[in-house]
Design a protein that fits this description.
56% helix
């Protein structure tokens, strides 16, 4: 959620999923279209610093922009949320702990280029 969605974002995932959800509903399938803004990560922190605001302020700003743009395109989500909700955090942490307890995670150090 660190930038304004562009036409490629909308056509590439949001609009196509909206069309498919509408098709499924039209066919009488049980369908729920869920989307939201991912508010975690380095890109969000970097953009907040660039714009001179906190991560929370940045996420509030861009979540509202995303919502307005999707409404303008008449995208019909059943739920348009945000990642830092208590319930979403519990689910994500539970998944992480299960993966770790079952030995599916590996810690590594790598070198990467950056600019």
């Amino acid at each position: 959620v660190n930038n304004v969605p562009h036409l490629g974002n909308i056509i590439g995932c949001v609009l196509s999923a909206d069309v498919y959800a509408r098709f499924c509903r039209g066919q009488g399938y049980n369908c729920i279209y869920v989307c939201g803004t991912d508010e975690y990560g380095t890109a969000t922190e970097t953009k907040a610093i660039e714009e001179g605001m906190s991560c929370q302020e940045l996420c509030d700003k861009y979540h509202a922009i995303h919502r307005e743009i999707y409404e303008w395109f008449d995208i019909k989500f059943d739920y348009f949320g945000r990642t830092p909700t208590r319930y979403q955090t519990e689910i994500a942490q539970d998944m992480f702990h299960q993966l770790r307890q079952n030995g599916f995670l590996e810690e590594k150090t790598i070198e990467q280029l950056y600019s």
